[in-house]
Amino acid sequence: MQDMPDGLHAGKVALVTGANKGLGREIARRLGGLGMTVYLGARDEQRGRQAADALRQSGADTQFLQLDVTDQHSVRRAAERIGQEAGRLDVLVNNAGIAVDAERPSKQRPSSDIRATDTTAEHMRWTYDVNVFGVVAVMQAMLPLLRRAPAARVVNMSSPLGSLTLHADSASRVSQAGLLAYCSSKAALNLITLQYANALRGTGILVNAANPGLVATDLNTFSGPRTVEQGATAAVHLATLPAGGPTGVFLGDDGPVPW
């Protein structure tokens, strides 16, 4: 069911990275349902266009945007296009992310059972290239457009697996997760979130981290208990915060997550 425009967000411009499927696509759908023009960022043109077309048919103003967060030229072209067509960016959702397989590092082969002692530097490079460096690349390219918006919102899609507090608690399930590359990339993303939030305080730009919970997507071979509709809730909430809303927080739809 498409959300109805509420008048508060109609006409705003949003970018969701990694949005041709799963959680990113649902976030794009929800923001479009509020009346925003949504640039659907996707690396693969065919899949991205198909997703954008499907969302448009459901009533959302969604535009495909070729965007590979690991390619600086692609990131720069994306920012230039948004600048030319919209002139500003009200919402940025950094959703693109990967987890790599233990035996054969690949952006297409997720796994949930990698022990820290099995993690290689190659795993770390693959993962950080998207989950950390990609976020910074997109943020730096889009920041001039975010500054042109009257009250921009940035949402970084994180995870409790990036919580140092939970990893330090031996009784927590998070501390038993393994996945050194993925978990540490989300910990880095959390600090990036705080650094940007602090640097942009007083500008009207709010920067926060969202916890979608364990959503059934291809990132975890569809093993999560939550639906993409449930997982998108926190991100959409943070993307639509009113003036005076929080910045530098890590929230799920059931409340704060410890850093």
Task: Tell me what you see in this structure.
The protein is 39% helix and 14% strand. The protein has eight helices and eight strands. The chain has a single domain (13-256), classed as Rossmann fold, CATH 3.40.50. It is globular and about 50 Å long. With 259 residues, it is α/β, with parallel strands linked by helices. An eight-stranded mixed β-sheet has the order 3-2-1-4-5-6-7-8, with helices on both faces. Strand 7 (250-252) and strand 8 (255-256) form a beta hairpin.
> Count the helices. How many?
8
- Return residue spans where pLDDT drops below 50 for at least 5 consecutive residues: none
What's the end-to-end separation, in Å? Answer: 34 Å
Helix and strand string, N-terminal first? EHEHEHEHHEHHEHEE
Largest sheet: 8 strands, mixed
Shape: globular
Which range best describes the helical content: under 10%, 10-25%, 25-40%, 40-55%, 55-70% or over 70%?
25-40%
At CATH level 2, the architecture is 3-Layer(aba) Sandwich
How many individual domains?
1
Major sheet strand order:
3-2-1-4-5-6-7-8
Strand-pairing-aware structural class: alpha/beta
Number of strands: 8
The CATH first-level class comes to Alpha Beta
Please report which band the strand proportion falls in: under 5%, 5-15%, 15-25%, 25-35%, 35-45% or over 45%: 5-15%
Give the oligomer, counting copies of the same chain as homo and different chains as hetero. Answer: single chain
Q: For this structure, what is the CATH homologous superfamily?
A: NAD(P)-binding Rossmann-like Domain
According to CATH, the fold-level topology is Rossmann fold
Mean pLDDT: 90
| Gyration radius, in Å | 17 Å
